[in-house]
Specification:
Layout lengths: L1 E6 L8 E5 L1 H6 L5 E6 L3 E11 L13 E2 L8 H13 L4 H8 L7 E8 L12 H13 L1 E3 H8 L5 H9 L3 E8 L5 E8 L6 H10 L4 H17 L3 E2 H8 L3 H9 L3 E8 L17 H13 L5 E6 L5 H13 L4 E5 L3 H15 L3 E4 L5 H12 L7 E4 L11 E7 L17 H12 L2 E6 L4 H8 L4 E5 L10 E6 H6 L3 E2 L2 E2 H12 L3 E5 L8 E4 L16 E3 L4 E3 L6 E3 L12 E4 L3 H11 L5 E4 L9 H10 L5 E4 L12 E6 L3 H4 L6 H13 L10 E6 L5 H8 L2 H15 L5 E10 L2 H18 L4 E5 L5 E2 L2 E11 L4 H17 L7 E6 L3
Parallel strand pairs: 12-17, 12-18, 13-15, 13-16, 14-15, 16-17, 19-31, 22-29, 22-30, 28-29, 30-31
Antiparallel strand pairs: 1-2, 1-4, 3-4, 3-5, 6-7, 6-8, 9-10, 9-11, 20-21, 23-27, 24-25, 25-26, 32-35, 32-36, 33-35, 34-35
């Protein structure tokens, strides 16, 4: 008996065993996709991870359905990395597999409805809907469920299908649907008969009465002479200004032959700049120091102030790896950054760059996957967000994690809740590759590791060229409101600075980390505030759509004209977001061109590109945005950055609040004065003497680091303790409360580490589910593996208690 061990793309913690024939056993290799039955009738795409001859003891092994690949499409290192992520972040291996693979490679069985050819059907006995389906199936022999939805124009078609199955008219079958389709481009060439001198004369004679067709043939010759390469139909049609029907007529006549060529969906023009990259003296010193650190360490932190030219150092470092034929992974925290970076890197590396992130569609992602798997010339450097970490690298030499402090590197939902920076370091270890972390405001844990000599540390303390650090000016909002020096949310000082920048033809960035117009709409008569019916939050007012929206579950309603509680029409808005800032700017600077960059304006595939390109081309004078602006963007003409209210970040109920506020403000401030002229930053705050704000003013990272480290040690937080946060969710408030208490008491009695909770989070209900959290703190000297195993055992016994089985438990390791 021969068996194969597989991972299924389901939230399951273990692998499953299937039976194979001897021939299949010798053909299948680790990393191939197999179609396997699971459950009563579903077929899934599984990945083979091991071949053996051990019969499973607990269940009867089923046979596999079919082998989907000729060669493995997942590497052995990838599979090992997946198992590490599943083990370390305490989630199912199936969840890691599902998250890692592009959905185009995860074939799913799709329900197909077919007609029973043997049975007699009395049409008079059919209802109208059944008759419509019956007629359609006579024409096509089989239909998908979605086709029946379209035919009947209703969502729930299963009752109709079930009745027809009972009447033995239809039967169901499960069929594997291939998700990926290669992009084929249609080309034309002249039929060989007309390629001779006589042939051409005959051709002109044939077409003497068909002027349009004659024009197309002449255009074809023209293009052929100029480009000397195959001619796509699209190009020929555009050049001759005719329709595709005319080209088809020539194909039908046998004058043209058409053929198809497979093409990559994402293509970059490879305009390599002739200029050689020369580093400045300070950059060269930093580069040499990095090379030295890598002779002793596997990971190195480049701590360089904003606009110090870290990207040039990365480029120089990448060059040394490409020369040896190795692949390089360049991780970014935000899709918005890929646009600018790809432009800069293409000047040096041409079309050796592939981009991989979630704004790409399935087919595009599959193509990049295949390029990386085959170590293609087009994918020597891969730039991407978190998901690029899961690509099938063959020979990975280096990983760059830019802006490594960013919290977006930690995946919050869905599982696996991994941290891309930490997972990248482990992946590099598997490949024997080096990792370069870069940031102007490193994460406290990373800086701590560098100080303890676990990582190498290289500092770059001056800006590139003649650039100076921006001047930071604090504006006391309390005093300004008292002295009536405010226009809306703008202080006199900020208005004056914006006016000055605009008059000099310079650009301005304004930062407000809240989207929408206003977070609260309040009735002035009774104080009622519209709440989301499914979450424990107030609805945010979006003026452009004139609606109230929940930013947690997406619930929306039109803006009320009167209070739903007391019917008063005296409603007012409180607080402000990016929309409100944009509207105030319109009245203050009617001639300025404004732009807004937040989640609402960047939803489309090219949403980021459009805004960034417009701003770079100086089509926008003032750009208002959320934290998307704070990450590594490079605009030379920005001379002023305004932070509308620094306090909103400082007072979050989170142990990282001060660290994050420092990072956010320093990063936003760093967008200013990146050319020769010194930039300016204006921070509006009610608390100008706050330690963190003062540290931003002095650009004192070390001061912030030491102060936070002192607090973290006292209150048992990272880097001195590892955190595992458990979130329990259930619709029944009392059952959740009882279950959370049970779990906390077992933890407190069983594991010998500090356990906090069960706590109600600040927002304790989302999508009609109540929540409770328990925090486990593991000291550095304690085995994290042993504690995790204890937590797993306790969670298994928690699931075994019948009344608590319905409570959902989410485990977040290294909670961020």
């Amino acid at each position: 008996m021969f068996f194969v061990e597989v991972i299924l793309p389901l939230a399951l913690a273990k692998t499953f065993t299937y039976r194979v024939s001897e021939t299949e056993f010798h053909f299948i290799k680790k990393g191939m996709r197999l179609a396997v039955p699971f459950g009563k009738s579903k077929i899934y795409t599984a990945i083979a991870v091991e071949l053996h001859q051990n019969d499973p003891l607990v269940y009867q092994a089923k046979e596999i359905h079919q082998i989907l690949d000729q060669v493995p499409i997942v590497t052995a290192i990838q599979i090992d990395h997946w198992f590490w992520i599943a083990n370390y972040y305490m989630c199912g291996i199936g969840e890691v597999y599902r998250n890692a693979m592009p959905s185009g490679l995860l074939l799913e069985s799709e329900t197909i409805v077919s007609a029973r050819l043997t049975s007699f059907v009395d049409e008079a006995q059919l209802s109208d809907e059944e008759y419509l389906v019956y007629q359609a199936i006579q024409q096509q022999s089989s239909l998908k469920v979605n086709d029946i939805v379209a035919i009947l124009n209703k969502k729930n078609v299963f009752p109709v299908i079930h009745k027809m199955i009972e009447k033995k008219i239809l039967f169901l079958e499960e069929e594997m649907m291939e998700g990926y389709k290669p992009k084929l481009v249609r080309y034309v060439r002249l039929h060989p008969d007309y390629n001779t001198q006589n042939g051409l004369a005959n051709l002109m004679e044939t077409l003497k009465n068909a002027q349009k067709q004659k024009d197309i043939v002449l255009h074809f010759f023209q293009l052929n002479a100029v480009e000397k390469k195959p001619i796509p139909v699209k190009k020929l049609v555009e050049s001759a200004k005719v329709t595709t029907a005319t080209v088809k007529a020539l194909v039908d006549k046998g004058i043209f032959e058409e053929y198809y060529v497979q093409q990559d969906r994402v293509q970059y023009s490879s305009e390599i700049s002739a200029k050689v990259l020369n580093l400045s003296d300070s950059q060269q010193i930093a580069f040499d120091a990095i090379q030295y650190q890598f002779t002793q360490k596997e990971v190195c932190l480049l701590h360089g102030v904003t606009a110090s030219g870290k990207t040039e150092i990365y480029i120089k470092w990448i060059e040394s790896y490409l020369a040896s034929g190795k692949q390089v992974l360049y991780l970014l925290p935000e899709i918005a950054l890929t646009t600018q970076l790809v432009g800069r890197l293409r000047l040096y590396f041409g079309d050796k760059i592939a981009v991989f992130h979630s704004k790409y569609n399935t087919n595009e992602r599959v193509e990049v996957w295949q390029q990386v798997l085959h170590n293609s010339e087009k994918a020597q450097i891969v730039i991407g967000a978190r998901s690029a970490l899961f690509l099938p690298f063959q020979d990975l030499g280096a990983i760059i994690v830019d802006e490594e402090h960013e919290q977006t590197f930690k995946q919050a939902d869905p599982s696996p809740r991994f941290h891309a920076r930490d997972a990248a370091i482990v992946l590099a270890n598997f490949h024997k590759a080096k990792v370069l972390l870069g940031s102007a405001t490193p994460c406290i844990e990373t800086f701590y590791n560098a100080q303890k000599a676990k990582y190498g540390l290289v500092s770059l303390k001056e800006r590139f060229g003649k650039g100076q650090m921006p001047v930071v000016e604090l504006v006391d909002l309390k005093e300004n409101y008292f002295k009536k020096r405010m226009k809306g949310h703008f202080s006199d000082a900020l208005i004056e600075a914006i006016t000055m920048a605009l008059s000099l033809g310079e650009q301005v960035i304004l930062f407000q980390n809240r989207r929408g117009f206003s977070p609260i709409v309040e009735c002035m008569t009774c104080g009622n505030i519209p709440q989301c019916p499914q979450c424990d939050v107030s609805l945010t007012f979006h003026k452009y759509k004139n609606q109230l929206r929940c930013h947690y579950c997406g619930y929306a309603m039109g803006k009320p004209t009167h209070c739903h509680s007391c019917s008063s029409i005296d409603l007012t808005t409180k607080g402000f977001g990016t929309e409100q800032i944009e509207l105030e700017l319109l009245s203050l600077f009617p001639n300025a061109k404004l732009g807004r960059m937040d989640q609402d304006t960047t939803r489309g595939k090219y949403g980021f590109e459009k805004i960034i390109d417009s701003f770079k081309n100086q089509e926008i004078d003032i750009l208002v945005g959320t934290q998307m602006l704070a990450k590594g963007l490079d605009f030379e003409n920005v001379s002023l950055v305004g932070i509308m209210n620094a306090d909103t970040m400082l007072y979050h109920p989170d142990f990282r609040a001060f660290e994050r506020s420092f990072q956010m403000m320093t990063q936003v401030a760093g967008r200013s004065g990146r050319a020769e002229k010194q930039g300016k930053v204006i921070i509006q705050t009610y608390n100008p003497m706050h330690n963190t704000i003062q540290q931003v003013t002095r650009n004192d990272f070390e001061g912030m680091y030491k102060e936070q480290l002192y607090d973290r040690q006292i209150y048992k937080y990272p880097p001195y303790f590892r955190l595992i946060k458990l979130t329990l969710k259930h619709r029944d408030f009392d059952k959740l409360k009882e279950g959370a208490m049970w779990l906390y008491q077992v933890f407190a009695q069983t594991i010998d580490v500090p356990v906090l909770g069960p706590e109600e989070p600040a927002i304790n209900r989302i999508r009609n589910e109540y929540m409770r959290t328990i925090m486990v703190k593991i000291p550095q000297d304690k085995s994290i593996g042993g504690t995790k195993n204890s937590i797993k055992r306790i969670l298994s016994s928690f699931e075994a208690v019948a009344q608590y089985r319905a409570i959902k438990v989410i485990v977040n390791v290294d909670y961020y």
